[in-house]
Amino acid sequence: MGFKKDFLWGGATAANQYEGGYLSGGKGLSTLDAIAGGSHEKPRMITYKTKEGKLETGWSRGSLPEGATGYIDPELFYPSHEATDFYHHYKEDIALFAKMGFKCFRLSISWARICPKGTDELNEEGLQFYDNVFDELLKYGIEPVVTMNHFDTPMYLADNYDGWSDRKLIDYFLFFAETIFTRYKDKVKYWMTFNEINFLRNWTTIGVHTADDQHKYQAAHHLFVASAKTVQLGHKINPDFQIGMMVAYIPSYPMSCRPEDVMESVSFNREQEFYMDVQVKGYYPAQKLKAFERTGVVIKKEEGDDEIIAAGTVDYIGFSYYMSTVSSANPENVKLIGGNQQPAVKNPYLEESAWGWAVDPLGLRISLCKLYDRYNVPLFVVENGFGAEDKIEADGSIIDDYRIDYFKKHVAAMKDAVDLDGVDLMGYTPWGCIDLVSAGTGEMKKRYGFIYVERYDDGTGDFSRREKKSFNWYKQVIESNGENLD
């Protein structure tokens, strides 16, 4: 019993939050390069030029006016431009991952580092950078797990094509996919197409200026076709590739046993299941087609799209799990708290982190059960973690017992899902295994890692690395294959 012998223990990062070097080595701009820093209290901001040439600043999660282009304001601080500088520290960081005993490392490839405009123009220096990273990982026996697109759309495509609302991006993405599949076919086995595909909806993530349902779901259709074609292409290039999808999974419980509350939770969960239904089952679910009819959304398809989606289903489901939420049919009962890319509803039975995220380890087991029962494909928990403000003690140590407690309970929940529920679980890559920039708030003080990086919200810090207490705890978890959690 317990986790399988080849269980993929590791950690997860994203290029736009960790890599840095935002214009180094021939990299082009991405949409996320235009988002300035923020805080828990103050949202991240984006500066852009209107089509009339006027500079404006707005909330990063909003849509941009039609024809607006991203702009880097020299007066603002952009934490992702250097992030925690994996670009210059990858050898040091990978050595630390090896010391922890990582079996895998999840990272993303920056599309704009390979194709500076997102088109068919290639940047050899960017390709070589990832060759070097993969070689360093494999030197230590660490399997790369590659997310092909983690929120960062090349800005040229956002500014000139309105991002994924334009079908032409399918072919541009396939050029990118074929390039990296061919280049790294003997170095990378595990791939995921689009990170948290259910959260891709605006200019910052997919380059689409108008974030209404029509544009959102039309862009999603283009993403589905691109993903399906990518899966087929990857399997042709190397039949041993394991290519998955990735969704942000936030299970919703009904506020009460009132049937109206139960139905509200069904509706909430269906929105996440929709993205998995299409990519795992290979078709649009009936409930979503009915929802399109009610709301007037019309998906423009080309001949053969449905067949492409049916033929390009994924090999596994990768998902992030940070919290659960609650659904109620009565808005007056809803109290919103913090959440992963969207507000969640307060659950009176759960504690919350300092950033207002509900802490629900049993919810991870519930999620694993629901997803495996529904899809019956291997599952991979590719993000899970606890953001907190860590303190360096006088002796230089960082005693993050709160993080250890969080992970201990979540690993135990996964073990129950495997032992008691029969879930086929591939691996576990906690989010931000090394400190990086928070996607939601743009902060450094909201830290997730087992490794502390000397980098602060005011842009100071020498990027030096140090191990937290959780570093050695996670090392023993990996050594014991999840048996020793004390």
From TrEMBL:
Top-level class of the enzyme under EC nomenclature: hydrolase
Active site: E383 (nucleophile)
Gene3D superfamilies registered for this protein in UniProt: Glycosidases
Database matches in InterPro entries: GH, GH_1_N_CS, Glyco_hydro_1, Glyco_hydro_1_AS
GO MF terms, alphabetically ordered: 6-phospho-beta-glucosidase activity
Hydrolase recorded as keyword: yes
Family annotation (SUPFAM superfamilies): (Trans)glycosidases
Record-listed E.C. numbers: 3.2.1.86
Entry keywords, A to Z: Glycosidase, Hydrolase
PROSITE patterns from the UniProt entry: GLYCOSYL_HYDROL_F1_1 (PS00572), GLYCOSYL_HYDROL_F1_2 (PS00653)
First and last residue of the signal peptide: none
Family per record: Belongs to the glycosyl hydrolase 1 family.
Stated name of the protein: 6-phospho-beta-glucosidase
Species per Swiss-Prot/TrEMBL record: Breznakia pachnodae
